[in-house]
Amino acid sequence: QVQLVESGGDLVQPGGSLKLSCVTSGITLGNYAVAWFRQAPGKEREGVSFISSSGIYKYYPNSVMGRFTISRDNSKNTVYLQMNSLKSDDTAVYYCAAKTRGPQTFETSEYPYWGRGTQVTVSS
User: Fold this and answer.
1) Rounded to an integer, what distance in angstroms lies between the CA atom of residue 20 and that of residue 80?
2) How far apart, in Å, are the Cα atoms of 83 and each of 2, 13, 67, 70?
């Protein structure tokens, strides 16, 4: 049974930092590309970072470029999202998702495996 479990979400002040973790089981993580998505109330789910199965290729949209960093440790079956200089607009539920093949994409239908999410709230 494939499972992705996110953790690390919290209430943080604007300008603060958080590090999210996505622990996987039931898959060989090294064979999977992983993306982090987020969804705020009333908004569509959007991709905020992507890392290839090798970890060599990473992609970020402009909204988080320079503030978010994705990384992975396949030996620990874990993918991370370091978030710095957080803004109120970053408030959302954050999800990790995994897929086996194909190029970088934030098309949600391309990801067969999803976690249940972790809440990030940026507020003073």
Assistant:
1) 6
2) 26, 12, 6, 9
What gap in Å lies between CA 79 and CA 19, rounded to an integer? Answer: 10
| pLDDT value, residue 102 | 74
Per-residue model confidence (pLDDT) at position 70: 98
How far apart CA 42 and CA 116 sit, in angstroms, is 18
What is the rounded CA–CA span in Å between residue 85 and residue 25? 31
Query: DSSP E strands: which ranges in 1-124?
Result: 3-7, 11-12, 18-25, 33-39, 46-51, 58-59, 68-73, 78-83, 92-99, 113-114, 118-122
Residue type, 15: G
pLDDT in tens, 61-88: 999 999 999 999 999 999 999 999 999 9
Neighbours of 119 (CB within 10 A): 12
Give the pLDDT confidence of 34-51 residue by residue, as tens digits: 999 999 999 999 999 999
Task: Tell me whether strands 18-25 and 68-73 are parallel, antiparallel or unpaired.
Answer: unpaired
